[in-house]
Amino acid sequence: MLYLSRQLDFSASHVYRVAEWGEEENLLVFGKCSNIHGHGHDYKLEVVVKGLLDETAGIVVNTTEIKQIAGSFLHKELDGKFLNREHVYFQEHMPTTENLVQYIWESLDHRFPGCELHQIRLHENHYLSAEKERDSLLKLTRKYHFCASHRLHSPNLTLEQNQQLFGKCNNPNGHGHNYYLDVTVEGEPDPVTGMVLNLAELDQIVESIVLEKLDHKNLNLDTEEFKDVNPTSEVVAMVIYGMLKPHLPQLCRIGLWETDKNYFEYWGPEGQHV
């Protein structure tokens, strides 16, 4: 099976408000997104299809077809629109990133000849995205940032072995990174708010459980979580998952960007990467 991905862009505006709620409750749940005049985004949509190779042509499907089908749908229905006011579906459903992904999936499914829709991933901005696959719960990813230093040194190895394995990262004085943390939760969008999880609640949990403990810290020396473990990024991702899971039952996976080139992902002890 081969997988092909095509990225498309569109712009739209919207507002998050429940008409039956007062101003205070809308502001509490949706924050600035409850501004009655709306706000907007430049969305990035990734469409992933899968299929078998056509050995004659050497392709699964012409990616131009993916662009034409998905692009025509976006242009007609979403691009340049105020979704709450101009789209029938989003007059009844909150135009959250989660509901947008659900609607786009249902609209594009079974429309690509010769291949099958595998995944839809929608980036609202650099810090928020949602994704949908067939027969799976919808996933929402929020990105966070923290700065920390660490020394890579295993007590199970000799000094020479540590130096050989970790190189300059074994510097006794440590070194640092600007970490970016992807926290992914999964579930069904709430029928009223359109959210898998209230973002304000998610932000508060991640801030208090993870960021306050790790940000601007030496992981080896300043934290209990890494006191007795080697804080490689693999371990950091696993530890953060363990920190969050008791407070975040919807947690699906942790992604950790150590640098732009180094990314680590953990799905939990029984996790599975699709």
Total beta-strand segments: 10
CATH superfamily of the largest domain: 6-pyruvoyl tetrahydropterin synthase/QueD
Relative helix content: 25-40%
Please write the CATH class name of the largest domain.
Alpha Beta
**Radius of gyration, CA atoms, in whole angstroms:** 22 Å
Structural class: alpha+beta
Task: Give me the CATH fold name of the largest domain.
Answer: Tetrahydropterin Synthase, Chain A
Largest sheet: 10 strands, mixed
Into which percentage range does the β-strand content fall?
25-35%
Number of helices: 9
Number of domains: 2
**H/E series:** EHEHEHHHEEEHEHEHHEE
Could you name the ranges where pLDDT drops below 50 across 5 or more consecutive residues?
A: none
User: So what's the overall shape?
Assistant: globular
| CA distance, first residue to last residue | 13 Å
Mean pLDDT metric: 95
Under the CATH scheme, the architecture of the largest domain is: 2-Layer Sandwich
